[in-house]
Specification:
The chain is about 65% helix and about 5% strand. The protein has helices at about 5-45, 55-75, 80-85, 90-100, 110-135, 145-150, 155-175, 185-210, 220-245, 250-270, 280-305, 370-375; strands at about 315-320, 325. α5 runs antiparallel to α11, α8 runs antiparallel to α9 (about 220-245) and α8 (about 185-210) packs across α10 (about 250-270). The longest helix has about 40 residues, at about 5-45.
């Protein structure tokens, strides 16, 4: 099946899609950083206003909409195997923004020791992004409704979907019935849903672009089917990611989720849209090398992120009775104001419960000084 356009048109479409994806991921990272900064600024200033009453938060919201819109349109031009790994640009941008917003000052040796892995990860991610974009698949097709239907009814696609459904149901059984709350299982469920999201988003985006060009595609039933699949898969992905954030650190989730979701999307693009059919062995190997460098770079960036400090017992002074109180583990959460806030898409800890002030524990009754003094004085001998 020859699904490619002319080489020039295909190259131009890939370039447009790649630039849109890079631009969209950068905007999303900046928007999340602005929104996080808005929350931190309100908390630091003890401003009674809600976050949605600030201009900074709304500016970040607008940028997020623009970024996601650019990402959505990019699927109509570039292959899924190129757009999906470009999510590393968002992680790279978040890391750079985190260093820009960093308030601490370090000497060069201390900075290199603490952030050397992140810097190396940024270099590897940048190099890997260039390699897999340069050697990625250059095939592209007009995603008309009839072409999408032909893809779906192919035996290899049906076999792929059957294996994916069986794997998803098996993982879901272990997760729900056996209580296997392992990070890999949760993120594998997210990755399998992500492959469906990538296939459906590319189909919906392609048909919308053709409709905008004057070739109506919205009346075909396949458009409604793909749109429903897109919305449903995104909703369930968000639910599984929310559950993962309650159990594991966000930096670990970001790195593992990028690797699994990208791998699943690349396989889905190769099977469903034949994106590697016209590629030679050298280009495929270089694409895999670039993807591997991105995986390693993202892993180093997220691994070097500052972890949340473990709870330690602490002593507070009861201002009413003047009695020191030792708070045991598990009763309260110690507030941490020493640089615990961070910025960017990878360090969004909105799912973590906010720190609470120490709870006043039940104290023994305190007697007056006069009574204590009376009982504590030794009795005087009478003459």
């Amino acid at each position: 099946m020859n699904i490619s356009r002319a080489d020039g048109g295909s190259y131009t479409d890939n370039l447009i899609g790649t630039l849109l994806a890079i631009f969209g991921n950068v905007l999303v990272s900046i928007s999340l950083s602005l929104q996080k900064y808005s929350h931190v600024a309100l908390l630091g200033a003890k401003d009674p206003r809600a976050f949605y009453h600030t201009k900074t938060w709304w500016c970040g919201f607008v940028l997020a909409c623009l970024g996601e819109g650019a990402n959505f349109v990019s699927y109509a031009f570039a292959p899924l195997a190129i757009v999906a790994p470009l999510n590393a640009v968002s992680i790279l941008t978040s890391s750079i923004l985190g260093l820009i917003f960093l308030r601490e000052k370090f000497k060069p040796k201390e900075f290199a020791k603490r952030y050397g892995l992140s810097f190396l990860g940024c270099i590897l991610t940048t190099a890997g992004t260039y390699i897999f974009v340069a050697f990625g698949p250059n095939s592209h097709e007009n995603l008309k409704a009839e072409n999408i239907v032909k893809h779906i009814v192919g035996w290899h696609v049906l076999l792929y979907l059957l294996l994916e459904i069986i794997t998803f149901c098996s993982l879901l059984y272990f997760y729900k019935q056996r209580g296997a709350n392992y990070l890999v299982i949760i993120l594998l469920l997210v990755a399998l849903l992500g492959s469906v999201t990538g296939i459906s988003v590319k189909a919906v985006s392609g048909m919308l672009v053709l409709t905008a060009e004057g070739i109506m595609q919205l009346y075909y039933p396949i458009f409604s089917v793909m749109f429903v699949c897109m919305v449903a898969s995104v909703v369930f992905q968000a639910r599984f990611l929310s559950q993962a954030c309650k159990l594991y650190d966000s930096s670990l989730i970001a790195g593992v989720n990028y690797i699994l979701s990208t791998s699943s999307a690349v396989v889905a693009g190769a099977v469903f849209y034949f994106e590697f059919n016209n590629e030679d062995t050298l280009h495929i190997c270089m694409f895999l090398l670039g993807s591997a460098l991105c995986f390693l770079g993202v892993f180093l960036i997220t691994k070097n992120r500052k972890k949340t400090k473990a709870f330690e017992p602490y002593v507070t002074m009861d201002m009413t009775n003047g009695i020191p109180t030792i708070h045991d583990k598990g009763l309260v959460v110690q507030p941490d104001f020493n640089g615990s806030f961070s910025y960017g898409a990878l360090v969004n800890n909105d799912g973590v419960a906010p720190a609470t002030l120490p709870v006043k524990l039940e104290q023994p009754p305190v007697h007056s000084r006069h009574t204590d003094a009376t009982h504590s004085l030794p009795e005087l001998k009478k003459d």
